[in-house]
Give the backbone structure.
Amino acid sequence: MIETSITRLQLLCDTIPDLLLNIDETIFSEKPSNNKWSKKEIIGHLIDSAVNNHQRFVRAQFEDLPSIIYDQNKWNEYNYYQQIDKIQIISFWTAYNRQLLELIKRIPQHKLNARVNIGEAKIATLAFLINDYVAHLEHHLKQVIQY
């Protein structure tokens, strides 16, 4: 059910950091327009997604229908990713996703049907959230690099 996502997340953790580090700092920080995220901010958004999904992955295992919702634009703005060093952001993305990978590998099968309120009257299972998390990563990473 989530095995493919585990394999894909492992591949991302093993290949993406070097590809990100090879992007020139100017290109990495360039904003296409004032209301569009730079590549650096996109990686920041993926960190925010990791943080919020981390809570979902853990709390769904012991809480009945936890509610974990976040405003992605505010999180990005107030994490100041555009102003933080590229290497710090890439290192944090890498470490956080390696941690999530280890967590996901250990979630008992019977917990994958646990449900989480993710906002806007949407309820999702833990299995769905894991699969969606990896698909979301891949979607945004394709905006930053070709791999």
